From TrEMBL:
Role description: PPIases accelerate the folding of proteins. It catalyzes the cis-trans isomerization of proline imidic peptide bonds in oligopeptides. Acts as a regulatory subunit for PP2A-like phosphatases modulating their activity or substrate specificity, probably by inducing a conformational change in the catalytic subunit, a direct target of the PPIase. Can reactivate inactive phosphatase PP2A-phosphatase methylesterase complexes (PP2Ai) in presence of ATP and Mg(2+) by dissociating the inactive form from the complex.
Domain of life: Eukaryota
MF terms in GO: peptidyl-prolyl cis-trans isomerase activity; protein tyrosine phosphatase activator activity
InterPro entries linked: Phstyr_phstse_ac (IPR004327), PTPA_C_lid (IPR043170), PTPA_sf (IPR037218)
Gene3D superfamilies, per the entry: 1.20.120.1150
Annotated GO biological process: mitotic spindle organization
Protein name: Serine/threonine-protein phosphatase 2A activator
Amino acid sequence: MAFVHPRKVILSKEQLAHFQQSKTHNEIITYVEQLNQAVAGVKLSADCTISPGVQAILSILDKVEQIATDTPPIDNKASRFGNPAFKTFYDKVTEASPALHTLIPNLPEPAVPEISTYFCESWGNRTRIDYGSGMELNFLCWMICLERLGVVDKNDHVALVIRAFWRYIQVMRVLQSTYWLEPAGSHGVWGLDDYHFLPFLFGSAQLRGHRHLRPKSIHDPEILEEFSKDYMYLACIKFIDSIKTASLRWHSPMLDDISAVKTWDKVNSGMIKMYRAEVLGKLPVIQHFLFGSILPWDGPLPPEPSQEEDEHWGHGHAKDEREVGWGDCCGIPVPAVFGAARADGTRLPGVGLSGPGIRPIPFD
């Protein structure tokens, strides 16, 4: 295989439509569904086999967190927006990426530049100091690449979700709280939370068929306290409650609406439909998707952008809320919730240590 440096391709709704019918789109959805099925009914605390490939991923994630620890935020009290030290962190991770990938067993050396691109883009956008589901998608693509290259296989799917992916989310919480990463276009009110989608998708799979816990259980603080260690969906709700005031209805109405669904099976199937529509089906997200040799583009290629125009190359921004996905790109900067919480004197437990007008949700 001839490896290539991944690049952006999608500029138009027509190209987005082509992507939605493509082999790469199908592979992403299939992979999400496979991981989803693998963790149905599986707790975060469950025993699972940790292969050398998964262990390497975990070691790399530990080292990324250490880079963040070694790169403290700049004193920037006057601003609630992203901290400039994130750019230093990003540069350090980019510089370390080739060496980090040498930790991965059986990884072909020529593949490292290609898959490093997905890895580096998983942590947020260096220029905008923001993060959203498009960056989260890059981490998923990195795992897909590792599986396609034989580093991990289907026997690792449970561990890839409840160990590797969940460790990634924990590292991202550190980055979000350390550098006050701004939400990349989805501000809670339109999305599930300010930053993530997949923990709710995989987390709802974990809860499928649970004898006692129901979707409405997210409103019970005692249940969140007791079960958040075992289920990432509940852990995410507990995290939101820890950094935002008022009720879920006000700051996360989509999650509040979903809590009225009767079963986790319906929540989970609805999450997959929503991921198709609101992440993989939205131009403001997928115009930033990177195509290489492992996840290829099979349509006509646009001209290469210049270095100066690459950041906002060729794309337009959402003109109305129907075009906004979970991770819209360059919209009006929104202060990180961590900055707002600290400004209001809100305590952020554990952070840094490890309604009306809402669109219908596909849970019927």
